[in-house]
Amino acid sequence: MDYLDHLEAEAIYILREVAGQFERPALLFSGGKDSITLVHLAKKAFRPGKFPFPLVHIDTGHNFPETIAFRDWLVEQTGERLIVGYVQDSIDAGKVVEQRGKHASRNALQTVTLLDTIAQHGFDACIGGARRDEEKARAKERIFSVRDDFGQWDPKRQRPELWNIFNGRIEKGENVRVFPISNWTELDVWNYIKREQIALPSIYFSHHRDVVLRNGQWMAADPALQIDAEDTVVHKSVRFRTVGDMTCTAAVDSEATEIDAIIAEIRASTVSERGARMDDKVSEAAMEDRKKQGYF
Question: What band does 100 get if pLDDT is binned at 50, 70 and 90?
Fold first, then answer.
């Protein structure tokens, strides 16, 4: 067994633990490479049977069209159930207020929609693709990370995890976020995608796109970005290392059209993939603050 075999075996074990310990789990699916990898791992864990959980996507309404198209294709290919929670519904119901101005984003509004979706369907465990190497707040998380009955995370009150023992016991109203690939790195994910020949949305590979420079980052030129006369739209060869809301996900200059070239780029990079997420730059503790409120 090589190191990818060990990571795969650990993730499959965790997925099966979720199926064994919880009554109504769900897999949070963003259409990004990490959640796509989770779907592939779930196939290995549960096929030829159906997944013991649905896929859940929280749609901001400002997602990349390529991501939505890939999501729908993957659901059709796997035959699994998809539940979509719409941020627009939360806005229309007056539960959240949409930001205004040039730098407005719906990304933070996803938390309310996610918690409402969890409550509506009674999910007691939500599987996510977060990894410890992404960001310092995520590095603090346990693999089984308990949320209180308000959906909040307290980094100072986490359960010990010794060896491969995971405690999924929760009180009524609580739920657990589970991170089967927590111990993987970005490079691990790409090496696994290469080995397993996993399909991905086209935006992970170099392509030509209209972009606009915002705070030193190349953002996709889209009406959701509120482009004005001060912005200069240019046509560049770029790709995305991470996929999220279009208003907070930046592209990187790239000519990498194949996985080997992407792996070489990652090896040479001195910036983490979350360095291309504008929502993490709000403050030093931006991610941790959002996670305390119930974010993914």
Answer: confident
